[in-house]
Amino acid sequence: MPMQANKNGVLAGRVAVVTGASRGIGEAIAVRYAMEGAKVVVSARTMNDGENPMEGSLSGVVENIRAAGGEATAIRCDLSNGESRVALIEETKKVYGNVDILVNNAAVTFFIPVLDFPERRFRLMQEVQVYAPFHLAQMVLPGMKERGAGWIVNVSSGAARHPAADAGARGGAVYGMCKAALERFTTGLASEVYADNIAVNVISPGLVATPGTVHHKLVREDTKERETPVEHMAEACLKLVAGDPKALTGRIDYAYDMMKEFSLTAADLPLQPLTR
Q1: CATH (domain of 137)
Q2: Which of 21, 51, 168, 234 could form a disulfide bond with 28, CB atoms 3.0-4.6 angstroms apart?
Q3: Which one from 33, 96, 131, 175 is the annotated catalytic residue?
Q4: What is the C-alpha separation between 118 and 110, in angstroms, rounded?
Q5: What is the pLDDT of residues 131-187, one digit of tens each?
Q6: How far is residue 115 from each of residues 64, 119, 129, 172, measured CA to CA in Å?
Q7: Which of 101-105, 185-189, 224-228 has the lowest average pLDDT?
Q8: Number of domains in the chain
Q9: What is the pLDDT of residue 49?
Q10: 256 is catalytic
């Protein structure tokens, strides 16, 4: 049975912003944080059902969190737009106060070979998956430094790894490039803010069934045995923000590995249903 929120949980009193939270991994992370007492801002472009071909919406996530006794607010944000990013953080401060936890999960992805990749889509992917996390971090870091603690989690992918020349990749070069840049940014920032008691980590999900991976046909009937439950990603992301920032920082991890390393058990979360 899906869990109920514990207002005195390990994240009680903290404010978390999760991007790309209208569905999938972002939704699961946001819900898990809310179940541990965090005040969660869920952000994406899809506010209501029917606005996107993929299932899921911010309003649905907030409804489920509140029904389980948690605290959440939806703020629509187009991460490709600088003014929209600024508005996200400013509105969060008005509603809940300074940001303690930032999860950069949002992505826009096009699987197109380099030879045919349009410049506008290249720039869009760079803006959303590289510069937006950088910009959001710039905006929340001053408050974290002032309070003497903070946690930033960047969601990456196995695509950041270097493929073999004969791997037969199918147009993922730009996606992999974005994720590799995000990982290097993470370790660099972690080093810069270690003395400020701010943790910065990367986590990758492995193969997870989400509306996005279903849409791109990355998960199919023949992949089910290799898939990682989305709840595992949420549990690993909770571990990264629940303790002493200096104890877990500068890491590039996979959810599966973290579940094993820390003997974590995934909670049953109140999530929007996924149709495969």
Answers
A1: 3.40.50.720
A2: 234
A3: 175
A4: 10
A5: 999 999 999 999 999 999 999 999 999 888 998 888 777 789 999 999 999 999 999
A6: 44, 11, 21, 12
A7: 224-228
A8: 1
A9: 78
A10: no
